[in-house]
Design brief:
This protein has one domain: Phosphoenolpyruvate Carboxykinase, domain 3. Strands 1, 4, 5, 7, 8 and 11 form a six-stranded antiparallel sheet that branches. A three-stranded antiparallel sheet has the order 6-10-9, with no helix packed on it. The longest helix has 10 residues. By secondary structure, it is α+β, with helices and mostly antiparallel strands. It has four helices and eleven strands, in the order βαββββαβαβββββα.
Length: about 220
């Protein structure tokens, strides 16, 4: 992932949500925003780089809901270049066609009547950060520690109230993803283009299993 566009970033939205910073701030784990109010989870364990939004969009921060959209690292630059999330089936500049994610409902595996051609977000980063969405990528700190990490990326977004349907998890797992949200109400889906605004790129780094084994052997 490499993004060099200076105008992409807005420093006022840069924020570290690592467990240490979160503990120091004694912040809540969940907040309520929008009209009508909707709850969302703070992305504890992630770092957010703020994304520039145009002036006409800024009033939406007080009225729209907050959500998260996990993705692959190799899609970040294209999403930022386009400036919005796209739907499965869309063909973007360069000819790439967007497909459903592995382990997610698709045209061959879905409930009767379910529309897979929607944009899916979640009020929970624990769900949006699932590996089916935020696919882990190996990252090595070549310059300093040489530590091997698993990295994940997701977008923090505004989503228009009334533009989306609240639905159940479309990743097939039988555990509770987030104790604050029922699995029956953890995914929001919209068919309405223009109803989502990107305002943060989230990155999470965790030592890989390979790195932990090396650390244990040298301890």
């Amino acid at each position: 992932m490499c993004v060099h566009v200076e105008s992409t970033w807005d420093e006022q939205w840069h924020q570290c949500f690592c467990s240490d910073c979160h503990a120091v701030k004694q912040d809540d784990n969940y907040y309520t925003r929008g009209e009508p109010p909707k709850e969302y989870g703070i992305p504890v364990g992630w770092y957010r780089s703020g994304i520039q939004v145009v002036e006409r969009v800024k009033p939406r921060f007080s009225k729209w809901h907050r959500g998260f959209h996990g993705t692959r690292a190799d899609r970040v630059a294209k999403i930022l270049d386009i400036g919005e999330l796209v739907m499965p089936g869309d063909t973007i500049r360069g000819g790439d066609k967007i497909a459903e994610r592995p382990e997610h409902f698709d045209e061959d595996w879905k409930p009767e009547g379910f529309n897979t051609r929607q944009i899916f977000v979640s009020p929970s980063i624990r769900y949006a950060g699932h590996h089916s969405y935020a696919t882990p990528t190996k990252y090595v700190d070549e310059e300093e520690s040489k530590t091997v990490y698993n990295s994940q990326v997701a977008f923090q977004v505004l989503i228009a109230p009334g533009s989306y349907e609240v639905g159940k998890a479309t990743v097939e797992e039988d555990h509770c993803f987030d104790p604050r949200f029922s699995n029956q109400e953890i995914e929001w889906a919209t068919e309405q283009r223009g109803s989502i605004v990107l305002y943060g790129l989230l990155v999470k780094l965790e030592e890989s299993k390979e790195q932990r084994q090396i650390s244990n052997q040298t301890a």
